[in-house]
Amino acid sequence: MKTALGIIIARAGSKGLPDKCVRDLLGWPVIAYTFAHAQSSKRLSAIVLTTDSEPAKKLAQDAKIEVIDRPPELATDIATVDAAARHAVTCWEKSHNATADLIALLYGNIPVRPEGLIDRALTHLEDSGADSVRSVAVVTKQHPDWIHRLDGDRMIQFRSNSIYRRQDLEPLYYHDGAVAAVTRDALFLALQTPDDHQSFLGKDRRAIVCKPEETVDIDGPLDLYIAEAILRAKGVIDS
User: Fold this and answer.
1) Hey, CA dihedral for 23, 36, 8, 201, is it positive or negative?
2) Can you tell me the distance from the alpha carbon of 151 to that of 167, in angstroms, rounded to the nearest whole number?
3) Are 38 and 106 in contact (CB under 8 A)?
């Protein structure tokens, strides 16, 4: 079985919700849920946190998760995820004298994920021979066929159509952020195309379809309430 490295990604700064990864959610920091998701994986050979957040580092150490200090230039709001991931992979491989064949990228501000999703993504990545596998969910009411531009207050269809039933919309999917599994080769080949910030996903990109409510990405205060409601529905109570 190939070596799979789980990289948890978290920044101290956030314009929408500062220090969102360490905000309280039912008595636990938001990032603690991602720690638990990663540690429950049967496929991950090792787990690291790459961050510039001191509180997040302390939480990771308490959870016995290896910490990689992210350099300031990789912790800005314009730094790319793949650059931070390559730095983490390089540090881990040098420290452990090993090679990470597969990489699972996990955002620290996502406290709600489908159970077993990390392992499903890694298994699909390996079995399919693809360059990457991401979790996606179907677009619902914000579908492009129901979106408009505004000229003043005049509505202009984004795509011309007369669809009024949701069932007639073309199925389209967005990356919900729950997991992105990539091969080491794809991650590092992206250095050859620095202007394409999606190239680390490779050419053969696959998907695992999830339900929209199965993942919550914490970007603002409202997301915390949504995550709390879903976790309570799952039986998670205040610690």
Assistant:
1) negative
2) 29
3) yes
Work out the mean pLDDT of the chain and round it to a whole number. Answer: 95
Q: Which residues contact 143 (CB under 8 A, 6 or more apart)?
A: 169, 170, 172
H helix and E strand count, the chain = 6, 11
Tens of pLDDT along 48-86?
A: 999 999 999 999 999 999 999 999 999 888 899 999 999
Cα dihedral 115, 88, 66, 21 sign: negative
- Rounded-to-integer distance, Cα 152 and Cα 97, Å: 60
The domains located in the chain, with CATH, are: 4-136+176-233 (3.90.550.10)
178 phi, psi to nearest 5 deg: -65, -40
Rg for the chain, CA atoms, rounded: 19
Q: How far apart are the first and last CA of the chain?
A: 37
β-pairing, 24-25 vs 28-29, is antiparallel
